[in-house]
Amino acid sequence: EDAEQLREKRREILAEAKEEARKILDGSNAAIERTIHEIKRAQAEKESTLEARRRLREEKEGLLHTGGKENALLKKAPKRRKESGKTRQAADNEPVRIDDNVRLDGQGTVGKVLAINGKKATVAFGMLQTEVPVNRLRRTIAQPSSGMKSGASLVGATSDAQRQRQLDFKQEIDVRGMRVDEAVQAVTYYIDDAIRFNAERVRILHGTGTGALRQYIRQYLDTIHGVRSYHDEHVQFGGAGITVVELR
């Protein structure tokens, strides 16, 4: 009879542990899904998103189907996860400093921060130095490329390429038919060039459709200091299917 009572008590404890696990999952699913959404918005590779979902699925199965010893650790798991999240958040929130290796938001080239003046930073990409908004820089452990052997050759090649890009620069870009991530990346490069070449106004042709492409492009424009304002084109020239961007 005592043994039966102990077995019944054990079953109750395990049931409570599983119920607690379900509550933990219910409370954390929303945060995990937001994390996956941010990974997608940051244009992560498809494999990274699948890996994140696979780890989530394994954690769910492990919490709901393991034995007593594992269930005894349930109370510790949320604490470790929360501390890990704080650690990652603290690292992400660390300001960019001089001598940090950085990437420009949306681009892959690694540069080094030479100076910081308010909201602007001077960054060296190889032999080329440029001033960019600090909020567009992302810290990285990757090292800047050593570049070409001849510094003079690199400067000359860069200068020629910049002149040719300026000559080829057009006052509008057409991203209709592109996926959202492709379109936003194309607009990122285009706006960078527009600011660099001192354009006063440019047009982005994105079409109307569901409005998602227009929304994501405008969310990106909100983050760029060099953009003074934007608005729909006049109805006679395309209306809501075209965003006119006024640059500083």
Describe the sheet with the most strands: 5 strands, antiparallel
Average pLDDT metric? 76
- Distinct helical segment count: 7
Number of domain modules: 3
Could you give the distance between the termini? Answer: 83 Å
Portion of residues within helices: 40-55%
> How many β-strand runs?
9
The coarse silhouette is elongated
Low-confidence stretches: 67-84, 87-91, 147-154
Radius of gyration, taken over Cα atoms and rounded to an integer in Å: 26 Å
Strand order of the largest sheet: 4-3-2-1-5
- The SS-based structural class is alpha+beta
- Helix-strand pattern: HHHHEEEEEHEHEHEE
Q: What is the strand content?
A: 15-25%
Describe the structure.
Strand 6, helix 6 and strand 7 form a beta-alpha-beta unit. The chain has a five-stranded antiparallel β-sheet, with no helix packed on it. A four-stranded mixed β-sheet has the order 6-7-9-8, with helices on one face. It folds into three domains: 92 residues, no CATH class; 56 residues, SH3 type barrels (Roll); 80 residues, Ribosomal Protein S8, Chain: A, domain 1, CATH 3.30.1370.110. With 248 residues, the protein is of the alpha+beta class. The radius of gyration is 26 Å and the shape is elongated. Helix content is 51%, strand content 19%. Helix 1 packs antiparallel against helix 2 and helix 6 runs parallel beside helix 7.
